[in-house]
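Give me structure tokens for this 343-residue protein.
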Amino acid sequence: MDIASLEHKAIEFARRGDFGADAKNTNEELTRVAPTNQGAWTRLARCCIELGMLDDANAALETVLTLNPQNMIARSLLQESIRREVLATPVEEAAPRSRAKSAKGKRAAAVTGRTGFGRAQFAALGQLAPASALESLGPSVESLLMALNDRPFAPKVVEARNRAGQSGSKLFRRNSFYSGGAGHIYAFQHGGRWEPQINIGISAAPQWERDSLRAGIGFNLTQTGSDPNREAGQERVLQYFENFQQLVSTAWKTLLADWMAANGGFVQLGHKPPATDLMPADGADALVNVRQPADVGWVFCGRWLFFDRPEDAAVLADQAKLVKWTDQAFTDLLPLWTTVYRE
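Here you go.
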């Protein structure tokens, strides 16, 4: 069958609201003979969504958005595909063998029953408008944050903040994740805008070179935000960062460099991807050598996972493994964070 006949047949399926297997096969054949046909890829994605083939739908939509990043139909379908993928992931209930074991099992199920971050999530983050990306990835991000609240490092952070006169009973509150613009979502501890942050960030390749997730200590050194006392807040975080630099330049320098070398650690300065080209010792030096921190705006040091590395992708896609990985990052860096916070 020629291209024109396939196109006509595919459109007729769509006009009848038929997005079943026959419509899928027709559009799939059309994409093979006309690989730049956006309509064919979009209809194929719709068929895959209706048939529950969400990975295939996401792959088709990525192709459309590569051909035309402004294709609003594809963007809308990608958001719907992500939404269905999240809703389709069950939260298993633990068997009630005993009260203690049941409670532990339910906590584990709540973690393993949620999606992590895979191809679909990073595609949504990179291709959707910031508000839509935040909505699509929100359940996965919030599930991660709530699980981290139950880890041993979390109450230690809360206790340190309480001793300093700051409020809060949980490290992360619900809905405490934010859009950092196109291709970026981040979260930090409750009340931590002007503090050294217990920071998690998720970034997409189109805007940040690689799909990635970070966990570590961050400093937002700008005056951005809705806080009416932004000037005083900036002075406060700049003082924290100066304390951090003093520590890293002396006792912590070798420890931090060794930790980065052993744990996939990198620094991030300003609105740039992680400095993966720097050796760990050079990364520590880069932190110390920031001379105009307010102009740099953002400084981070911590662990990174990159979706283009198969071993990292396996961690990102499995929420239980991701919680364990993130917990280890914050546990390792907690002594440094605590020392900076108390200085």
